[in-house]
Specification:
The structure holds two protein chains of two kinds.
Chain A (H helix, E strand, L loop, with lengths): L21 E6 L5 E2 L4 E2 L8 E6 H4 L2 H5 L7 E6 H5 L4 E4 L11 E5 L7 H11 L1 E5 L15
Antiparallel strand pairs in A: 1-4, 1-5, 2-3, 4-7, 5-8, 6-7
Chain B lengths: L14 E2 L6 E2 L9 H12 L16 H12 L10 E4 L5 E7 L2 E7 L4 E8 L4 E8 L3 H12 L5
Antiparallel strand pairs in B: 1-2, 3-4, 4-5, 5-6, 6-7
Helix pairs in contact in B: 1-2
Classes of the chains: A alpha+beta, B alpha+beta.
């Protein structure tokens, strides 16, 4: 899993995920869902890259959610739709969870000042399904391996 | 002047409608708790532990929170309703205002630089750029853009 730091430092990305695939992105922070406005915050996607699971391999939404604290939410995105916004998903190893065969990294535009625009477009237009996060105060996510 | 915080759906800020020639009257968002409330939300971000996002995020940068609090404190009174305050996984933060499909995001990339997004697809506005935190004139222009003509 990643949190903005590109795992692609060596310059080699994994194979692209097919456009017809759906991607599952965990909402691991309550404020990535804006309850008052019933919307996903673009902050959930506004990184150079972010982790997703390929839905057809994951098999269920719980597969993605269960690695995090209880109450973690989730959004489902279509790979082709977000690719149209400049977000390219590549099937790559999950460095935090090496046994996660469904993992991909979604790479956002890095040039031309389009990162925020792409993140907003994904949040506003391409969330096919949303499970709202409701993580209890004080709950913590499992620590990724160091 | 109103004597309490106006809900977002009761606001009507200045503007002119081209179709009717109608002129709207300035109506401020009277919220005397704006600055302390937003600054308190920013303080809350400092309580987030390492790995708060489950993907190994660092703690939120204290200097960025301080810069955002100074920025908020220096905004003109009654300029807008309270923004959504959200942490970002690299350790920075963002202020978000949304009205329907129109929105403004101010991401504090560092203590000195804000990356902004003006978003109003219906008007073909999807502008992204950066400005200095100290450029309050530009920040006010962006917020006024968001607020202009908002009337539900």
């Amino acid at each position: 899993m990643s949190s903005g730091a590109s795992p692609d430092a060596g310059g080699t990305k994994g194979p692209p995920v097919a456009n017809q695939e759906d991607l599952q992105r965990a909402l691991t922070y309550n404020k990535w869902w804006v309850e008052e406005e019933q919307r996903v915050s673009s902050a959930a996607f506004s990184f150079p890259d972010f982790s997703v699971d390929i839905a057809s391999i994951a098999g269920s939404e719980d597969y993605t959610i269960r690695r995090f604290a209880s109450g973690t939410g989730l959004v489902v995105l279509n790979c082709g739709a977000v690719r149209g916004e400049g977000c390219h998903a590549c099937k790559e190893k999950d460095q935090n969870h090496p046994d996660n065969e469904a993992h991909a990294n979604a790479y956002m535009p890095t040039s031309g000042g389009h990162r925020k625009r792409a993140a907003k477009a994904i949040a506003e237009k391409h969330c096919k399904k949303v499970i709202k996060p409701d993580i209890a105060a004080g709950a913590t996510h499992p620590e990724p391996p160091t | 002047m109103a004597t309490k915080t106006l809900p977002q759906n009761k606001l009507c800020t200045s503007g002119a409608r081209k179709d009717t020639g109608e002129e709207w009257i300035y109506a401020s968002v009277y919220d005397p708790e704006f600055t302390p409330a937003v600054c308190a939300e920013l303080d809350e971000l400092l309580r987030l532990p390492k790995n708060w996002d489950g993907y190994g995020a660092p703690k939120i940068d204290q200097t960025i929170v301080a810069a955002a609090q100074k920025f908020v404190a220096e905004l003109p009174e009654s300029i807008a309703w309270r923004p959504h305050v959200v942490a970002m996984s690299p350790g920075n933060l963002q202020l978000e205002w949304q009205h329907g499909t129109k929105s403004l995001e101010l991401e504090f990339e560092s203590p000195t630089v804000i990356r902004y997004l003006q978003w109003h697809p219906e008007m073909n506005i999807e502008e992204e750029g950066t400005f200095r935190v100290t450029d309050s004139k530009f920040a006010v222009e962006l917020i006024l853009w968001l607020m202009a003509g908002t009337c539900v």
